[in-house]
Amino acid sequence: MMLIPCPCCGPRNQIEFTYGGDATLRRPPNDASPMVWFDYVYLRDNPSGSHDELWLHSAGCRRWFKVRRDTATHDILGSAHLGEALTDAAGAV
Fold first, then answer.
1. Is pLDDT of 45 > 90?
2. 39: part of which helix (H) or strand (E)?
């Protein structure tokens, strides 16, 4: 079981959440070329280690937030509301 720390509700079981994707991606402008859109929609890195993700607390407060998770160990390193700086337990931004 993985406990995810919702910034509003506190630590909860992972079954209460829905994964929303990579929090580091930036949407291209509307007038971007089809190849830029193809890359944005279909091509993803598969990082190993610390990675920022978007999560929805779908069975709780229904809010989106950011989580920093180690993809190799599934350890949760930190969480924050959208728009807030995401820091891990060691204080790194």
1. no
2. helix 34-42
